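task queued by scheduler; priority normal; single chain, no ligands, no partner chains; default sampling; output format set to structure tokens
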Amino acid sequence: MNRIHTLSILIFFHLFTFGQNFNAGGIIGINTSQVSGDNLSGFNKLGVRIGGFVHREFNAFTAQIELQYINKGSREVVDNETYEQGYVFQLDYIEIPCLITKKIYPNIWFESGLSIGYLLNWSEDGFDIVNGSNVDKLEYSFHIGLNYKINENFYLNTRLSNSIVPIRHHSSGQTYRWNKGQYNTSISFVLYYYFGEKI
């Protein structure tokens, strides 16, 4: 990441942890994903989403910043009985989502926000390589989701995420209107554990 991104992250952490009215906790769960523009369909790529978070309460909403490791990509299954894989596109990111959450029903919060992700490594393998070109090191995404309070310490979270800009261009180099290349789309299901006083 360049200096501007690093400085922005440090400022966010300073704002969230300044004062006493904040909580922190851990994240663990699964992430299902697909990549648009690879001629495959379905959230067939299973991965993990693990990390931690800090959030702070304001008058009508809660702001939250997370630091997480997340797997994305796509996968084609050519044999439903043996789950033999015909194609696998693996992407591993360190991601920093910045979110706003608001209570909409008892024990239910709506969330939305943006994130920046740094690509740790990637691989593409299969009978027919879909693209083969390099993946951008930085990914910018938007998120929407829901949090459900189980008890004072545990919350369930489901989140839909999508890249704002392509993670890489099409191998042909062609673009059409909003389709500028390949984009990550993922749906995650995770458990939040809160260390301190809750929402």
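post-processing summary
- The domain at 3-194 is CATH 2.40.160.20 (Porin).
- The chain has one domain: 3-194.
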